[in-house]
Prior knowledge:
Elements: H1 9-20, E1 23-24, E2 29-32, H2 44-56, E3 65-72, E4 82-91, E5 95-104, E6 107-117, H3 141-148, H4 154-160, E7 166-170, E8 185-192, H5 200-210, E9 232-243, E10 253-263, E11 266-275, E12 280-292
Antiparallel strand pairs: 1-2, 2-4, 3-6, 3-9, 4-5, 5-6, 7-8, 8-10, 9-12, 10-11, 11-12
Amino acid sequence: xxxxxNPTPHELVDRLLELLDVKDHGGDRFxxxxxxxxxxxxxxGQVIGQALASAERxxxxxxxxxxxxxxxxxxxxxxHEIDLKVERDLDGGSFSNRRVVASQLGKPILNMxxxxxxxxxxxxxxxxxxxxAGPDDxxxxxxxxxxxxxxxxxKQRQQMLQPRPIELRPLELRHWMGGGPQPPLAHTWFRSVxxxxxxxxxxxxxxxxxxxxxxxxxxxxxxxxxWAKGNMMGASLDHAIWFHxxxxxxxxxxxxxxxxxxxxxxxxNRGRIYTSDGRLVASVAQEGLIRPIKSKxxx
Length: 299
């Protein structure tokens, strides 16, 4: 075992799996664990992943989730577990529907609706994967963050350098790498840093967790604002995922993000997730708060 400051990849993934393995308290009530070493605000992808895991506990295995729509109501606090209540709104011939309320200290922090569909055959088409470089020759975001940490205000630096259970390999510059405004496009390869169990529900929960990474920042790219520069207040407002096909979250997936609109202190973002062999396996949409603020000087 290693200490908490230097966990191995397997320990990082084990912690993620424990985080997403909600406790069943009966009566369709579940509990999401706290993140080990978490400080401050709960990561939005964690709440979505725990809400999805709770909903899937109440649905038959032959009905995988095909979509979820979530609204962030309040920021979660890392000091407390998350209470999750599932409502079974529908179990029909082909579809099931669930509502989940995630709460802390009696106040809701997220509402989510998820739909589940029994597998059927049908017609097929898909938007092709963008023609971009593969992940093998790209630097990981962890390496890039270490390389550029001195360009980030000190208050953001510690969070920026924390080891993560998801490895990211970006193709374009991030805000914290320097440079000015860029087009609202971002392509990132991602996967878990260690192997995952073969349970498809775990892979969907991990993708849901990772889908909140890099997405909101896409709408800030043309405007040279970001949390890392200390000149923006940002928060996810809503988040939707459509699960199209099977995948493994411990194999490389391409997250192709774009932002067609930003205004009124909000940014709208879209994402397409592809396997390395070009299959479109999920689509994501999110609107978030991107409120410019005066830059904070580093200390």
